[in-house]
Design goal:
By secondary structure, the chain is of the alpha+beta class. It is built from nine helices and 15 strands.
């Protein structure tokens, strides 16, 4: 069997390059002849997966959730259905931990050898695929707006600090959002997300009982603009406590969103900055890819 290992050398605390020999050894003991590609720039993982995705038995990405997102983009644009292995080595790895992958690189590599593939939904944002979240507004810049050296030094805490800072810089966007059933959700929103995950930037947690990562629909969250400091405090408390039934939050499920904003709206896809625009289409690609999960994981 053949494996292509796509490695992002700058993700997380840059520790992954020192573990490559052990990872390759683990894969080879499991029967895989491994080819390694070390990424050199943004988009490299996507291009590599697109070109070579059908030439291997498994495509393994080693990096953060952004590296996984790139790999998925490449696989889908190339029309490949090869199973994907994921060794998380980023800063927060929200999606990875949400699906039960190990934070220990060698354990994660071993799980690829012994695990089982499971189909997952993928999002499409104006023609571009994303793995687990498209978001705008407050908290959105917590990922792509945090310098890499701070992510590497302070890890998850850097995201939390950025999120808290953004609360003091809240800007509402007047938006019209139509779901797949044609229902209009209109208002002044400070944050919004179409999610296929249980965590938003490591700050907002979704109840796992409400989230199915292969059910063909997104979990959508739209947060209205609070008017007073007291309302800001109540809103933040509700979000952190997972209270989705409050006056500031519109929470629903849908397979498609058509969004119009009166000004160009900055977006983030899987923690990476996306193009700002006034009109956006987001849809679910049902069970578009397969990711190898640990054999013992029964929670997904």
């Amino acid at each position: 069997m053949k494996a292509l290992l796509i490695v992002n050398p700058v993700s997380g605390k840059k520790r992954i390059t020192g573990e490559l020999v052990n990872i390759i050894s683990c894969l080879e003991k499991g029967g895989y002849t491994t080819t390694v590609h070390v990424t050199e720039r943004r988009g490299d993982a996507a291009e590599t997966a697109r070109i070579y995705g059908s030439e291997y038995d498994v495509i393994i990405c080693c990096g953060g959730d952004g590296t996984l997102s790139e790999t998925v983009n490449g696989m889908i644009s190339g029309g490949h259905r090869t199973k994907i292995g994921y060794i998380p080595s980023g800063t927060t790895n929200d999606f990875a931990y949400g699906i039960g992958l190990s934070s220990q690189t060698l354990t994660a590599a071993g799980d690829i050898v012994t695990g089982r593939p499971k189909a997952f939904d993928v999002g499409r944002f104006n023609g571009q695929e994303f793995m687990y979240i498209a978001s705008f507004g407050a908290f959105t810049q917590s990922s792509y707006g945090t310098p890499q050296h701070l992510k590497n030094t302070f890890g998850h805490f850097a995201y939390i600090l950025s999120g808290i800072k953004e609360l003091a810089e809240i800007k509402p966007y007047h938006m019209s959002v139509y779901d797949a059933e044609g229902i209009l959700h209109e208002g002044d929103y400070i944050f919004g997300a179409a999610c296929n995950a249980t965590s938003v930037g490591g700050i907002i947690k979704l109840d796992k009982r409400l989230v199915n990562l292969s059910d063909g629909v997104f979990e959508v969250m739209l947060v209205s603009c609070p008017k007073t400091p007291v309302q800001i405090s109540l809103m933040a408390k509700a979000l952190l406590n997972g209270d989705y039934n409050n006056e500031f939050l519109d929470f629903f499920h849908t397979k498609r969103l058509d969004i119009h904003c009166e000004e160009a709206l900055p977006w983030s896809l899987d923690g990476e900055e996306a193009e700002s625009r006034t009109d956006t289409e987001i849809e679910v690609l049902h069970e578009a890819i397969s990711i190898i999960l640990p054999e013992s994981d029964e929670n997904i």
